[in-house]
Amino acid sequence: MTQLQQLRHAMRRAGLDAMWISDPANVRAMSGFSSGKDGKVLVTHDAATLYTDARYTVQAAEESPLPTFIARPPATVEHAAPGLSGLRVGFEADHLTVAALEDLRDHWPQATLVAVQGLVQSLRVVKSEVEVQAVRDAQALADRVYAEVRPLIVAGARELDIATEIELRLRRAGAQSAFDLIVASGPRGAMPHGVASDRVIQDRDLVTVDMGAQLRGYHSDMTRTVAVGTPDAEMARVYRAVLEAEEAAVRAVKPGVRTADLDRLARDILTGHGLGEAFAHSLGHGVGLEVHEGPSLRGTSDDVLQPGMIITIEPGAYLPGVGGVRIEDLVLVTEDGFEVLSQSPKETL
Ligand SMILES: CSCC[C@H](N)C(=O)N1CCC[C@H]1C(=O)O
């Protein structure tokens, strides 16, 4: 079943006659149009239309099988209005701005607008073979770039130099960075989102490199923490604890497992090493058209692993004023277990 067919089933279950899709990743998922932020999709039970403007006439025709209406707002919503009279139309409450909602209300007075959350996203958590291949290719590229750049992580280099090298190599390969590159050395390692700064890497630093490629719209995500010279004994201990938690959580990945239980497993190991408080975020997340998408590997999540999900396993320990460690793999949930997509070597400290 295509994602569009799945969406129509989901719309029926939610009592919706139509769905106005504005979230860029959802626009891309439903239409194939890659400039999702400048597109909208209207799906009813018997039609689906892509709306974008004249800057994208050629691109939309090349990328999307959907009939396309080229116009700028408000002509787009005016075009849709007659067909929506008397219908219950869902909109994406976690994306549409208040102003855009007001606009829909003004132009579709005969429709009942229904706030919907996560409906299209839920159809994206299990990946098709084509999607898995796209993420696989993105990760393979990231692994290659990491191997090229790892030797440059030495005392005297700036975090920004490392990030620039990674970015340049991704660009040359026709991809781009999946997010603002995290290169956090020494005490900056205590920042889970420590994007590369002009700090000069010092001997004995641990350096956390969190990187991903975005290729054909799909993302990868991987973290390695590396040592420059001989690290402090306490940080080496923290590294081994995080590695133990990461590897144990990866090994536990299989269909039917609750993601909250995976988070608990990693957290308990870190707690056993006195690092429970230092693990300041969830164990991971799904990866696909967005770098952060479902399922959530949060302690409070009700998500359950299914074959075809692609997730990160990324425990960390962050010690303010001292430093930090994070180790992250990108993992495909298979029919009987898991496959680790990220192949870059991890250091033994
Ligand atoms: C801004 S994208 C960050 C990618 C990274 N791998 C990641 O997902 N995380 C780093 C810290 C925890 C986790 C997150 O929840 O952001």
UniProtKB/TrEMBL annotation:
SUPFAM superfamilies according to UniProt: Creatinase/aminopeptidase, Creatinase/prolidase N-terminal domain
Name used for this protein in its record: Aminopeptidase
Record keywords: Aminopeptidase, Hydrolase, Metal-binding, Protease
Pfam families registered for this protein in UniProt: Creatinase_N (PF01321), Peptidase_M24 (PF00557)
Annotated InterPro entries: Creatin/AminoP/Spt16_N (IPR029149), Creatinase/aminopeptidase-like (IPR036005), Creatinase_N (IPR000587), Pept_M24 (IPR000994), Pept_M24_MAP (IPR001714), Peptidase_M24B (IPR050659), Peptidase_M24B_aminopep-P_CS (IPR001131)
NADP in keyword set: no
Domain spans labelled Creatinase N-terminal: 4-126
The keyword Hydrolase is assigned to this record: yes
Top-rank taxon, per record: Bacteria
Entry-linked Gene3D superfamilies: Creatinase/methionine aminopeptidase superfamily, Creatinase/prolidase N-terminal domain
Source lineage: Bacteria, Thermotogati, Deinococcota, Deinococci, Deinococcales
Protein source organism: Deinococcus sedimenti
